[in-house]
UniProtKB/TrEMBL annotation:
The name this protein goes by in its record: Oxidoreductase
Length: 463
C-alpha cells in the first residue's frame, strides 16, 4: 500500500482462499495481477465444483478473521451485514469438546475474543468480492495447463493456458501456485531438472459427511458446536449456524473408521458425542438437500523450505504447500498468515523471495503441524512414526483438557491458542501447568474421598 509497483505482471493459479489472499498482497507490488481459476466462479455465495470441501463445515479461527480483515478491510462488517453471526466475547455461544473433554466455556472470558461464523461459500465469496474490487487485480476463468520454464534463465516466465487444441502463453514476472493440495508443482520441478520436495505426511484416514439442516428456533442457542474425536470415540462432529438461518452439520471419522452414510447414522454420532438436548434438536431438524461426502486420507507438508535448488519466478502457496488435518479447522487461517509473510517479504524487497517465504512458512507451520501430529498419533489413532516425547505431550494435554472442563481460565487459555490467537505454540506457561495440576489433584482428592469405604457416613440429623 502506498509503495511503488516495481514489477509488471504477476499470475496466480487458483482463485480460492489462498490465491485471492496472494493476489491482494501482490497488487501492492505488481502493475497487474491476474488470477486464473479453472472453475466458473459464481456471482453469489455458492458451492464450487473445483473446491469440493466447500460443502463441509469450515471453522474460521478468530486469528484468521483478523488476518483476512487486515488484507481486505471491511470484510468482517460485510459478512455481518450479510447475516453472519459475530460472537463478541460470547463463549456461551460455543460448545467445544476436544479429545473427549467438554471445555467449560460457559463463563465470560477475561480477554476479548471475537469469532465469526460464516459458511465457507459466504467467506470465499466475500473475499473474492473484495479481491475483484482491487483495481489492478483481474480474476479470469481459465485452466492453467502448466507454468512455462526457461532453461537458460532457470526461471518460470509465465503460464500456458489450456485452449482446445492449443496452448496460449501469458508472460509474467512471478507465478504463484495456489492450486491447492492437488498441485502438480512437484512433478513440474522434476521435469525442469529440480528435486521434488520431501513430503511429511500423517495417515489420518478421515471421512466427512455433511448435511445442511433447518433446526426449529430456540432448540440450540449456541452458534458453534464442536465435538472432536477422542481415544475411545473415532467419530466427531462440527456444526455451525449459517448466515441464512440454516445449520451445517458435518460428522467425521478418523483412522479409517467407517463413516455415517445416512442422516440417521449422523444422528447416532450426535447422540454419542453431544449433550442430549443438542442431539435431540438435531433429530428434530429438517434435512435440506443431499448429504455431501469427502475423503481426506493424509495431511501433507511439502518441504519446499528444505530444497537446495528452486527455480526463480514461481512460489508455492496455501494448501499447495501444507494441507492440515481439516478437523482442526486451521487451513484458511494458516493461509492468511502465509499471506502476511509474503506481504512483509515483498515490502523488504528481499532478493531471495522463494527461500525466505519457504523459511517463514515453515516457521509458522511447524508448531501447528507438530501439535496436530501429537493429537493425531497419540489420541486419534493415526498411524505413523512418532518421536518418544509425542506420547508424553499427548498424555499431558489429555490431563490439561480434563482440568479445562471445569476451570474457565484453563478453558480460555486453550480456546485462544486453539484459535491461533495468542501464539501458534500450544505450550502452556508454568502458571497454567501449575493450575492444571492443582485442579486435577483436588478433583482426584474429592473423588478418592467419595469412593473411600472408610469415609464417614453422611451425618444423620437427629430431629
Ligand atoms: C474437508 C475439508 C474441510 C476443511 N475445513 C476447514 C476448516 O474448518 N477451517 C479451515 O480454516 N480450513 C479448512 N479446510 C482447509 C481449506 O479448505 C483450505 O485451507 C483453503 O481452501 C485454502 O486452500 P487453497 O486456496 O490453497 O486451495 P483450494 O481451496 O483447494 O483451491 C484451489 C483452487 O485452485 C484452482 N485450480 C486448481 N488447479 C488449477 C489450474 N490448473 N488452473 C486454474 N485453476 C486451478 C481450483 O479451481 C481452486 O479454486 C478444510 C479442507 C477440507 C478438505
Amino acid at each position: 500500500m502506498g509503495q511503488p509497483r516495481n514489477h509488471n505482471h504477476a499470475i496466480v493459479i487458483g482463485a480460492s482462499i489462498a490465491g485471492l489472499c496472494a493476489a491482494r498482497v501482490l497488487s501492492d507490488h505488481y502493475q497487474q495481477v491476474t488470477v486464473y481459476d479453472r472453475d466458473a466462479l459464481p456471482e453469489t455465495p455458492a458451492h464450487r465444483s473445483a473446491v469440493p470441501q466447500d460443502r463441509h463445515v469450515h471453522i474460521l479461527m478468530a486469528r484468521g478473521a483478523n488476518e483476512f480483515e487486515r488484507l481486505f478491510p471491511g470484510l468482517l462488517d460485510g459478512m455481518v451485514a450479510a447475516g453472519v453471526a459475530k460472537l463478541d466475547n460470547r463463549p456461551d455461544c460455543i460448545h467445544f469438546g476436544a479429545a473427549g473433554h467438554v471445555l467449560g466455556t460457559g463463563h465470560t472470558l477475561r480477554h476479548g475474543f471475537t469469532a465469526y461464523v460464516p459458511s465457507r461459500k459466504q467467506l470465499e465469496w466475500q473475499i473474492r468480492r473484495h479481491a475483484a474490487a482491487v483495481p489492478n487485480v483481474r480474476i479470469v476463468h481459465r485452466d492453467v495447463d502448466a507454468p512455462r520454464f526457461d532453461g537458460k534463465r532457470q526461471a518460470v516466465t509465465g503460464v500456458l493456458l489450456s485452449r482446445p487444441g492449443d496452448r496460449e502463453f501469458i508472460p509474467a514476472d512471478l507465478v504463484i501456485d495456489a492450486s491447492g493440495r492437488g498441485t502438480r508443482l512437484p512433478a513440474w520441478l522434476r521435469e525442469w531438472g529440480y528435486p521434488r520436495p520431501e513430503e511429511q505426511t500423517i495417515d489420518v484416514g478421515i471421512s466427512y459427511a455433511t448435511q445442511q439442516l433447518r433446526i426449529p428456533d430456540g432448540l440450540i442457542t449456541e452458534k458453534v458446536v464442536v465435538a472432536g474425536v477422542s481415544r475411545t470415540q473415532q467419530a466427531g462432529l462440527g456444526m455451525l449456524f449459517y448466515e441464512d438461518g440454516t445449520w451445517g452439520l458435518t460428522t467425521f471419522t478418523v483412522a479409517h473408521a467407517s463413516a455415517p452414510q445416512t442422516f440417521a447414522e449422523m444422528c447416532t454420532v450426535a447422540d454419542q458425542v453431544l449433550p442430549a438436548r443438542m442431539a435431540a434438536a438435531i433429530r428434530r431438524a429438517e434435512p435440506l438437500g443431499n448429504i455431501a461426502f469427502h475423503r481426506y486420507p493424509v495431511s501433507r507438508w511439502r518441504r519446499y523450505d528444505k530444497l537446495q535448488r528452486f527455480p526463480a519466478g514461481i512460489l508455492p502457496f496455501g494448501d499447495a504447500v501444507v494441507s492440515f488435518n481439516p478437523t482442526y479447522g486451521q487451513g484458511m487461517t494458516m493461509t492468511a498468515i502465509q499471506a502476511g509473510h509474503l506481504r512483509r517479504l515483498l515490502a523488504s524487497q528481499t532478493r531471495h523471495l522463494a527461500y525466505d517465504l519457504g523459511r517463514a512458512t515453515a516457521k509458522t507451520t511447524y508448531p501447528v503441524w507438530t501439535m496436530n501430529a501429537i493429537g493425531d498419533l497419540t489420541l486419534h489413532g493415526s498411524e505413523g512414526p512418532a518421536p518418544w516425547w509425542y506420547r508424553r505431550v499427548g498424555a499431558l494435554f489429555d490431563q490439561f483438557l480434563g482440568a479445562a472442563e471445569t476451570d474457565p481460565v484453563l478453558a480460555e487459555w486453550f480456546l485462544r491458542r486453539f484459535s491461533l490467537l495468542d501464539s501458534l505454540y500450544m505450550v502452556p506457561p508454568a502458571s497454567i501447568i501449575g493450575r492444571a495440576i492443582r485442579h486435577n489433584l483436588s478433583a482426584w482428592r474429592v473423588q478418592r474421598h467419595a469412593m473411600s469405604p472408610l469415609r464417614d457416613p453422611d451425618p444423620v440429623l437427629d430431629i
